[in-house]
């Protein structure tokens, strides 16, 4: 009975990857998206949120739905290929909106920095919502998250990916720039 159990276990293990001539297990890469918040005024990293999606895609397109703030506005971002919400935040005229989705961000203290002196090369940046067409120094803003371990992980698994970002301004008109956030979006 002991040998029969061992034989069954071995058959299960070798059957897990029938396409491989060496019968090794191949890890399945999860489809993940990472949002990181960076303070607009001082470019300080403030926190992040990682979402794991059950379905995988070969492309990563973000579309937005924007309601301009006549009084109350909103911006929503969607992972188009999966029709999945990535971000939802108010934009209030002469007030302060809030982020409704993601509902929480891990604080900066929960992230590790890599211990290296070799800088990670800048990715190609795509500003996905820039209604005023303002030119920004994205490399300078990226410096605050450049050495995060999770950024290194995402860039390592998808090194040619465009890093998407936008400036979330929860209040406009007489908005408070201390509450504005850069939102960086990475796909593994």
Salient structural properties:
single chain; 188 residues; alpha+beta; 3 helices; globular
Architecture blueprint of SSEs:
Layout: H1 2-15, E1 31-39, E2 45-53, E3 62-67, E4 72-79, E5 84-93, E6 99-101, E7 106-107, E8 125-129, H2 138-142, H3 149-157, E9 163-168, E10 171-172, E11 181-187
Notes on the structure:
- With 188 residues, the chain is of the alpha+beta class.
- Helix content is 15%, strand content 36%.
- It contains three helices and eleven strands, in the order H-E-E-E-E-E-E-E-E-H-H-E-E-E.
- The strands form two sheets. It has a six-stranded mixed sheet, with helices on one face.
- A hairpin with a 4-residue loop joins strand 4 and strand 5 (84-93).
Computed structural class = alpha+beta
**Spatial sequence of strands, sheet with the most strands:** 7-2-1-11-9-8
Largest beta-sheet characterization: 6 strands, mixed
Helix content bin = 10-25%
Mean pLDDT: 85
The counted number of beta strands is: 11
Proportion of β residues? 35-45%
Alpha-carbon Rg, integer: 21 Å
Q: What's the end-to-end separation, in Å?
A: 45 Å
| Unreliable residue runs | 1-26
Number of helices: 3
> What order do the helices and strands follow?
HEEEEEEEEHHEEE
Rough shape? globular
